[in-house]
Amino acid sequence: MTGLTGTAALTRFVLRRNRLRILIWIGSIVLVELLTAQSTKGLFPTQEALDKYAAATHGDAAQIALNGPDQGLDTMGGQIAFQIGTTGLIAVALMALFFVGREIRGEEETGRLELLRAMAVGRHAPTAACLSVVAAMSAVVGGAIALGLIGLDLPAAGSLLFGASLFAEGLVFAGITIFAAQITENARVVFGSAGLVLGAAYVVRVVGDIDSGTVTWLSPIGWSQKTRPFAGDRWWPLIVTAAVTVSLVALGGALSTRRDMDAGLVPTRPGPRVASASLGRPLGLALRLQRASLIGWSIGIFVFGASWGWVASDVEGLYASNDAVRKFLSRLGGPSLIDAYLSAVAFLMALTATGFAIQSVLRMRTEETALRAEPLLATPLSRRGWVTSHLTVALAGSALVLAAAGLGTGLTYGIDRGMSQVPRLLGVALVYTPALWLFVGVATLLFGLVPRASTIVWAVFAACLVIGLLGEVIRFPGWITASSPFQHIPQLPAQHLTLLPLAVLTATASALVGAGLVAFQKRDLG
After folding, report:
1. Are residues 394 and 459 in the same domain?
2. Could you list the residue range(s) of the whole structural domain that residue 481 is in?
3. Most confident of 59-63, 117-121, 236-240, 411-415
4. 288 and 246, same structural domain?
5. What tens digit of pLDDT does each residue of 119-175 get?
6. Which of 415, 360, 351 is nearest to 389 (CA)?
7. Distance between CA 224 and CA 164 in Å, rounded?
8. Last residue of a domain, one of 217, 239, 266
9. Could you tell me if 172 and 292 lie in one domain?
């Protein structure tokens, strides 16, 4: 038996067990990227519009920070790569990060990997199987997007290079996650450390692109963007990505032979001899379990909001001569183009913050399947008290994440327009709180009724994401558009505040939470 014995069988097993998750990842990334590309093409119908936007954007630090280097913006291919490139690279990196972390460290943490290794399975077979699946997923994403861009009449060479850069990005972050999985025995730390690398790669790329571009070579995101699709078409930077990926995978494989199963190279730091008083209460324990996630989401969305707020003051100048963009934003109403832009930004940040709300509720399912909830509930702690503690974190935490988004937008926009914008945009963000709470209610109901299907809430969120981002492009029927709770939120500051839809959403969320709590009290654990 060799270190790769059983790789083929494990690959089929990974594909079968994750087939729905794989389809959702691939379908969502490809759909969003191609529909955004199509809408971008519609926003710049003439060469004159491209030239004006390229002239206004050239050297603009805010636009470069958001979208990447301003290369080839006077061509349709360069403009589309500018608008969807960074988003696509981050999405593929997250796909690889979460998939590899779950299949390697997550399976080892639950003990399932040890059972597989007890069979005729080589030491490196699980990693090789997972890497094969991620490589195939990244290849499908890159290939589908490349074919879609060719279908939009973009040059084939640039389209194929753009797809190859996405494929390479997935591989390099798979390698980063494989390496991180050897360091610690905690799956959450693996996700956090690999995510920290992704965030650092984005920041380094921003600093490098705003400057001379030299520092960008320290960023995995920068390597893919250095290929310059539709603006010179350079294939050789992918060699750097390939070399780093091979090195990380080889290093991860070597380190895996130097640690025990279910252990990391860095031992777990022992906790204090005496626990804090808050850990003796359900809410304190729930907050401790989700503290890192809450802080990470808050910081990330604060930076996200700050970057969008930084651009807000330039919106009038960037799109003053582009009738298509002005028409698109004017559908939100409002007295100015900037208000319409801020409404769109608040909507995007609310969609992002919904990820925390869902993740926070589903932490109860994680605690249950990991057999940590049952010992707690064997104590005088009631089921109602246990669920309520996690729901309090989810409800209050989602509002806190939204507040961080509004604070980030208000601070950077307020530097130019006055600090009075901070409370104004804080309120603009917080108005979406009832929509996030509705997802908390849906997740709670699924957890109580059909716990094994509780992840369906992500599919519901994906549907709302498509409706919100691509509804104007696909032109859904009115009843489909109305099914998304985000469509009933007053889009401040472009629209006036109406309290009735907020009250209805809050009442519905309360009813769903109550029904989920009752259902959980009546079902068995596990």
Report:
1. yes
2. 280-526
3. 236-240
4. no
5. 888 888 999 999 999 999 999 999 999 999 999 999 999 999 999 999 999 999 999
6. 360
7. 9
8. 266
9. no
Taking the CA of residue 135 as centre, how many other CA atoms within 13 Å lie in the half-sphere pointing to its CB?
Answer: 12
Residue 271 lies in a domain: no
Entry pTM: 0.82
* Alpha-carbon distances, residue 122 vs 107, 178, 268 (angstroms): 16, 16, 26
Would residue 230 be called left, alpha or beta, if left means φ above 0 and alpha means ψ between -120 and 50 degrees? left
> 445 and 304 in one domain?
yes
DSSP 256-278: HTTS-TT--SSPPPP--SS--GG
Burial of residue 120 (CB within 10 Å: 0-12, 13-18, 19+) is exposed
Which of 266, 299, 327 corresponds to the end of one domain? 266
Same domain, 246 and 284: no
From CA 438, how far away is CA 213, in angstroms rounded?
Answer: 44
User: How many angstroms separate the CA atoms of 434 and 398, rounded?
Assistant: 10
pLDDT attached to residue 463: 85
For residue 483, count CB atoms less than 10 angstroms from its CB and return exposed for 0-12, middle for 13-18, buried for 19 or more. middle
How far is the CA of 389 from the CAs of 1, 268, 275, 498, 512, in angstroms? 49, 27, 19, 31, 16
- The answer to whether residues 323 and 437 belong to one domain is yes
Instruction: Assess whether 176 and 226 both reside in one domain.
Output: yes
Q: What is the pLDDT of residue 474?
A: 64
Q: Are residues 242 and 337 in the same domain?
A: no
